[in-house]
Structure formats: C-alpha cells, structure tokens
C-alpha cells in the first residue's frame, strides 16, 4: 500500500480524497433495467440478473459491456450482435430517464454533502456517458445539483480501458493531485473494487442488495449496506479506517 496500511500502530491511514462510482453508489439508475429490456429477441430478459449486471457490465464501456453480457448469457455471435444491442440499450435508457426513472440514493446524497462540508476532495468516475445528465437532475439540500460537488469528473471517459483496469482510478487520482494510495474508492461492483486495488487505492464496497461477499472477495477494505455508516471525520483522522482492520 505504498507504505501506508490500514492499521500500523501510530501510523494511521488518513483518506485524503474520494473517488466515487455513480450507478449503484450515488444513483438508483435504470441502467440495469435498460440492458435487460434491450435483450428482447436475443435472450430471455429474465436471465439478465443483477449478478450479471454487476459482474459483466458495470464499470465497462458500453460496447464492452454488451459483448460481456451476451457471452455470459450464451448468445451466439456475441461480438456481431453487441453493437445493435448496445444501441437498443441506450435508446431504452434515455426513454427511462425521460420518464423519471432515476433517483439519488439518499444515503449517497448525504455522504457527498458531509464529505463536501468536511472539505474532502471528490471525483466521480463512471464509464456511463449518461452519468452527468442524471447527476444534474439530482438536487442537494441547498438546491444545487449533485454534480457540482465534484472537483474532478471522469464520467463517460471512454478513451481508456474499462474497469477492472485501474486506468480511470489512476487518472482520477492524478487530476485530484492526490496519490492513489491516499484515496478511497467507493464502489458497488467487484470490477470497480478490483480497479481500485490494482491502482493501490483502498476500496469501500456498498452492498445494497446483500452482495457483500463478492465485494470483500474482490478486495474491499470494508463493506457497508448504507453510506450513512461511514464516519467522514473518522476517514480523515484515520480512526474509521483503523476500525476496518
């Protein structure tokens, strides 16, 4: 961990910045539903489970996620079908967003507001090109958009490999001007946790669907079911991270 550990006597790990995924961490978005709905004609949509979404699609660029999902579902000629599948998914997603199918997780909103009040630098890092539009729709308690809380925005960055490659975490840390080992990455998918660990950053897993096991197995230093469980002051002082060890 670059010389810093979760608990090394008097040398505590103090979080200096946060890097947050969007879907499943900050927003209850219709991405999973859109991928499922777009399967009609290719595979039984009911086979597209939340596990497949988290393990095969979440955190990946759209076309890469389409190929991965189709292969997981055993669809023949997955590479040949992926482009049309991804286009249908995007059209369905935009329709769901227009109909009001996105909302913030209230614990995620509170977490970001508490971190901002504490002066903790934050980045958002999602493969989704729709993340900005959805975050703008979500309002903070003072009426501003949730997107305005982040000093670094890498949403929709598709000029690098998708998670679990560490590229997006390393770039976020570089733009925050904080070493990756001093960042805490907040993720709800094992692929995102693995990206954080590959970048030598710590990862906090958010298990909203009782899926703590895969997040721990991927390397999350701690897993919570709600971000209300996280003590921001403890993160910056090292006390909360000591409790993780």
UniProtKB/TrEMBL annotation:
<dbReference type="InterPro" id="IPR036412">
    <property type="entry name" value="HAD-like_sf"/>
</dbReference>
<dbReference type="InterPro" id="IPR023198">
    <property type="entry name" value="PGP-like_dom2"/>
</dbReference>
<dbReference type="Pfam" id="PF00702">
    <property type="entry name" value="Hydrolase"/>
</dbReference>
<dbReference type="InterPro" id="IPR023214">
    <property type="entry name" value="HAD_sf"/>
</dbReference>
<protein>
    <recommendedName>
        <fullName>HAD family hydrolase</fullName>
    </recommendedName>
</protein>
<dbReference type="InterPro" id="IPR006439">
    <property type="entry name" value="HAD-SF_hydro_IA"/>
</dbReference>
């Amino acid at each position: 961990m670059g010389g810093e550990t979760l608990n090394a006597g008097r040398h505590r790990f103090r979080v200096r910045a946060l890097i947050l995924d969007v879907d499943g961490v900050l927003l209850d978005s219709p991405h999973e539903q859109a991928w499922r709905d777009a399967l009609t004609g290719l595979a039984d949509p009911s086979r597209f489970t939340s596990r497949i979404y988290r393990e095969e699609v979440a955190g990946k660029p759209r076309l890469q996620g389409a190929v991965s999902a189709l292969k997981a579902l055993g669809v023949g000629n997955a590479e040949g079908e992926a482009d049309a599948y991804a286009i249908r998914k995007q059209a369905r997603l935009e329709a769901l967003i227009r109909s009001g199918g996105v909302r913030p997780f209230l614990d995620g909103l509170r977490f970001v507001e508490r971190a901002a009040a504490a002066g903790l630098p934050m980045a958002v890092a999602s493969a989704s090109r729709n993340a900005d539009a959805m975050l703008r729709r979500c309002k903070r308690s003072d009426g501003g958009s949730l997107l305005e809380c982040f000093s670094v925005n890498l949403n929709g960055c598709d000029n690098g490999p998708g998670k679990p490659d560490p590229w997006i975490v390393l770039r976020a840390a570089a733009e925050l001007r904080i070493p990756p080992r001093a960042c805490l990455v907040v993720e709800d998918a094992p692929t995102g946790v693995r990206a954080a660990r590959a970048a030598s950053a710590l990862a906090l897993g958010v298990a909203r669907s009782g899926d703590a096991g895969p997040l721990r197995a991927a390397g999350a230093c701690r897993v919570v079911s709600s971000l209300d469980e996280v003590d921001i002051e403890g993160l910056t002082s090292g006390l909360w991270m000591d409790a993780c060890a």
